[in-house]
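Retry 2 of 3 after timeout on previous attempt. Resubmitting structure tokens to design endpoint.
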């Protein structure tokens, strides 16, 4: 009994060029591989890029308003600069129950209804 050899044409998943080389090869070049995965992840990347841009802007605003280890600012000052209170990287709750919200190493905590204390955590940098 003769073995039937079936050869399938292997093509690049991105550009449809014929693949030469390893049997498990899926792309003809690094450029095609990168283009394929960028295209596949573009919607997710856009969403994440937008959030990261907001977080970066919030961090920059906090950094510009803090002098030394802490500074007190008014809510309207943050809002005027475009600060978005819904976006932060983490929360830290003190033993006394105060909740600090951080954008990377810069955080803020309400002092009263119209003002915040901005702080910088040096241990994030070290």
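Retry 2 succeeded. Sequence:
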């Amino acid at each position: 009994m003769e073995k039937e050899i079936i050869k399938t044409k292997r093509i690049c998943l991105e550009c449809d060029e014929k693949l030469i080389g390893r049997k498990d090869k899926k792309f003809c070049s690094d450029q095609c591989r990168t283009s394929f995965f960028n295209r596949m992840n573009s919607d997710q990347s856009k969403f994440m890029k937008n959030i990261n841009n907001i977080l970066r802007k919030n961090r920059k605003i906090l950094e510009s308003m803090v002098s030394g280890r802490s500074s007190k600012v008014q809510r309207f000052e943050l809002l005027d600069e475009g600060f978005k209170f819904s976006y932060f990287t983490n929360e830290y709750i003190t033993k006394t129950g105060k909740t600090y919200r951080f954008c990377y190493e810069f955080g803020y905590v309400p002092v009263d209804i119209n003002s915040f204390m901005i702080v910088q955590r040096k241990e994030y940098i070290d």
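Attempt log closed. DSSP finds three helices and five strands in the chain.
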